Amino acid sequence: MTGFGPAIDTRPLYPRERGLLLDLLSALPSADWDCPTVCPGWTVHDIVGHVLNDYLRRLSGSRDGHRGAVFADDETLPAYLARTNEEFVRAARQCSPAVMTGLLAHLGPQLDELWAARDLDAPADLDVSWAADDRPSPAWLDIARDYTEFWVHQQQIRDAVERPGAEDPELMAPVIDTFMRALPHSLRDQDRPIGTAVGFTVTGPSGGDWLAVSTPSGWRLGSGADLAARVTMDQDAFWRLATRGIPVEAARERSSAEGDRELVAAATSLLAIVR
């Protein structure tokens, strides 16, 4: 265990999550591909194009060492991602649903093969900035972050076309657990005595209990005796909060909290995407 908490191996979940997505997409009527989603300006077709971009970018960069698009002058990481994601999504509008579904089915096993060869404790190919800015991320966190992205985008598609979500705890619990690795980062500006702890409970079959503790090197996941604040939130509200599928205030309305108000406010501002 490190300051990131115990490792999560999401690699076995990739084929199952993808299988559910491919089954869903293969059964969608043509009109459903044009449904608007929670992602501003993006339809279901656009989210599928974005997922395809993620597959291609990962294989090109992590497997093939391809540099990819370069940053513009003075461009921040959020601005770079927003620009390059939008560029690909616009281009993918030229592709039919059948072509994109087929590409996902073809490329997915190659991504599985790439991750299967990884040492989970080795340095990540891409650091997870929302978990820590000052420490290199382990590979397992990088891989888990990508898993959460694919799961979330599938949920956004399911919401848009009014299909039940892929909320089996085996698939969803690792998403909640991975997102909670953002809790210490959410508390980074809160200066408290060493050993101060903030508890966060997520209710539901995929939930659990987590503690962030103030240490000499910053907030870390772990255990502590001095519980200064606690937040309880249902699992649906939590993953939507972490990805800003709902506003912070809406998530707070679906939660309960006690203790230090500033710590509660920081914890319920948790963000597990680059923004």
TrEMBL record:
Annotated protein name in UniProt: Maleylpyruvate isomerase family mycothiol-dependent enzyme
Residue intervals of the Mycothiol-dependent maleylpyruvate isomerase metal-binding domain: 18-157
InterPro entries attached to this UniProt entry: DinB/YfiT-like (IPR034660), Maleyloyr_isom (IPR017517), MDMPI_metal-binding (IPR024344)
SUPFAM superfamilies reported in the protein's UniProt record: DinB/YfiT-like putative metalloenzymes
Native species: Saccharopolyspora taberi
The keyword Magnesium is assigned to this record: no
MF annotations from Gene Ontology: isomerase activity
Record lineage: Bacteria, Bacillati, Actinomycetota, Actinomycetes, Pseudonocardiales
Domain of life: Bacteria
Keywords associated with the record: Isomerase
Record Pfam families: MDMPI_N
